[in-house]
Amino acid sequence: MREKILRDLASRAATDPTFLRRARQDLQGTLTRHGYYLTDDERSLVEGLRRQTASMTDEELARTLANGLEKRSGSPPARPAVPSWRGSGPARPARPGGLR
After folding, report:
1. How confident is the model at residue 1 (pLDDT cuts 50, 70, 90)?
2. CA distance 58 to 15
3. Within a domain: residue 85?
């Protein structure tokens, strides 16, 4: 599994309420629209987390994700003022305009 991709996804969900709400309503569509192409194992992990957290509010889930990221990295996820494209590669091809 690509931990960087999963960490980026969790950070985005923790800091972007619109992204989190849409992902909870239509996970695959939201991931695709934002350039996240997950492997089967990664998708299973994210779907499992989605099922386990279904009873949480968006705010509770965002706080839980931020706390988990802070424990892993020692600092909370940064809240970008403007969405940024953090690199490209086989998993996330570059998109016109540099925004995701």
Report:
1. confident
2. 11
3. no
